[in-house]
Amino acid sequence: MTAAIEMVDVLDEPQTIEGRSPFTLALRRLRKDKVAMISLVVIVLIVLMAIFAPVFTAITGHPPNEQYRDIGLTPDGLPRGPNGTFWLGTDDLGRDILVRIAYGARVSLLVGVIATAITVVIGVVLGLAAGFLGGITDTILARLIDVVLSVPFLLVAIALVSVTGPSLTVTVLVIGCFSWASVARIVRGQVLSLREKEFVEAARSLGAGDGRIMYVDILPNVIAPVIVYTTLLIPVVIVTQATLSFLGLGLPPPTADWGGMISSSQNYYTTAWWFILFPGLALLITTLAFNLFGDGVRDAFDPRADRS
Amino acid sequence: MAMFLLRRIGHGILVLWLISIAVFGLFFVAPSNVAQTLAGRQATPETIALIKHRLGLDLPVWKQYLHFLGNALKGNLGFDYYHQVPVTKIIAGALPITVSLALGAAVLWLSLGVFNGVISAIHPRSLADRGLTLFALFFYSFPSFLLGLLLLYFLYFRLTLSGFKWFPAGGYSPLAGGFGPWFQHLFLPWIALALLLAATYTRLTRGSMLDVLGEDYIRTARSKGIRESRVIVRHGLRSALTPVVTQFGIDLGQLIGGVVVTETVFSLPGLGQTAVVAINQQDLPVIIGIVLFASAAVVVANILVDIAYAVLDPRVRLH
């Protein structure tokens, strides 16, 4: 199957035979993965929803934090189900769930991307340093990695956020500062074997310094596992943020975020199914799309992946 | 082997000591108004000062730490601020609940994960493989609190509404009070936790089974005419389980302090929920005690895993 397609490629453009880097090969494999591509489309849609959240307000006429205590709540003060005015129903304060889901996507994606970026940068820098420099640097960093990996993350995160007070910055920092250790460990392991390779010796004999060897020669070789890990880390971070919100340590109200919405729906799950269902679905679809995409990325970048 | 063990245990103690410093520093440096809370709204500054003095909060942080460390080495983790109960007693009370939850779920996720992983590996890329992978990823993507709430909605609320009072809304019933109630109270939390964790094991078993089934000795076993089921279980699965056992040890250690959400959703007063309550009350000795205890569980689990590894694979001992 694969061979046949590549044959056609060759026949189409017989003159140009360009070298394919492992990266382009991986991208090509990824593009053929239907599940991964569908997930990517879903991710793009969620990103668009987050960017264009104000459009939802424009269409429905409902700002995210506006409480419609008259038309948005039943006479008993309960949330209203999906109807012509509120397409996905209202929450306990009479706010439009659809609009809040759109705005909530901003929080999830923002935290997911920024916290993951911090995690990966810290992890790669420290992992490179530990693996390449060795000696006392490695000993100290390796113990530090052990410490961070042994601490019960969620407990400490809850404790920290409760001490500092919840905010976007705190959430991002707490997640970033506690997740880098696994990235560092992966990178360190790879670098340990890479630094003995001939190309490092070659670079050194050409007069390259430690910094140059680490970032110019070695880094490109560890980028594949880092990319895979990054894609799979984003959904974990999104869930962590939602979990903190669920435990009451998310963003201060009235900011819309999915975990917080699900948390406040708890008291109504027997009477207002839409209140938990739609924010829950939004969160689940997002993490599922990222995980399925990440799975495809892993298969595409892992040369040992079974394509038998 | 003895040297390896000693070094490993030494590392573990070092890590725990560092964690104790970090946790202590973190929480004691942070602004706290425990004394104010304890004294009540109308307390005079003198009363607050007196309470601070009684709790030892007026000492410099390093003195408080040395005091704490000295006591901890004697097995005393201090007393909680509100009822003066020893922290060790609080942990001892909550631990059986967390352990019941973790071990029961472990049985489920191990059987589910390993079984699905083997099925996937026997027929890679088949419909069954893809279906099981999707199944695993689906539950892996579930935020644990959402899965817990859904289970409660369908298996508690809906079932009870239809007249089947099989599962309670939450809470815990000790094993001493009978196996039936204990089982009923833990069944939904077990499922919630197991579905979440099974995915990792499905993937791990599948990958490692695929590697092993490609080995020469498996071909040899097959060519000797051994039954396929025996080849898969006795020759394949047995050696494929090593990474699974490793992961299992690590996960079990982490669950001691990591089932915060499941315990909260199902109102199980285990270590996680106790810690959350303590955090809300700024009950520092309890927070520090539980965080340290949970870290110790991870450290011990990692050492046990390393030992198991060294026993299984002699090459590890040399490093």
UniProtKB/TrEMBL annotation, chain A:
First and last residue of the signal peptide: none
Residue span, ABC transmembrane type-1 domain: 105-294
Superkingdom of origin: Bacteria
Any single GO CC term annotated in Swiss-Prot or TrEMBL for this entry: plasma membrane
Membrane topology summary: Multi-pass membrane protein
GO biological process: transmembrane transport
PROSITE patterns: ABC_TM1 (PS50928)
Pfam families reported for this sequence: BPD_transp_1, OppC_N
Coiled-coil regions listed: none
Name this polypeptide is given: Peptide/nickel transport system permease protein
Organism: Kribbella kalugense
TrEMBL record, chain B:
Residues covered by the ABC transmembrane type-1 domain: 95-309
Lipid biosynthesis found in the keyword field: no
SUPFAM superfamilies: MetI-like
Transmembrane segments: 12-30, 90-119, 131-156, 182-201, 286-312
Annotated GO biological process: transmembrane transport
UniProt topology in membrane: Multi-pass membrane protein
Keyword line: Cell membrane, Membrane, Transmembrane, Transmembrane helix, Transport
InterPro entries tied to this protein: BPD_transp_1_N, MetI-like, MetI-like_sf
Location of this chain's protein in the cell: Cell membrane
Recorded GO CC terms: plasma membrane
Family the UniProt entry places it in: Belongs to the binding-protein-dependent transport system permease family.
Record-linked PANTHER family: DIPEPTIDE TRANSPORT SYSTEM PERMEASE PROTEIN DPPB-RELATED
Protein name per UniProt: Peptide/nickel transport system permease protein
Organism for this UniProt entry: Kribbella kalugense
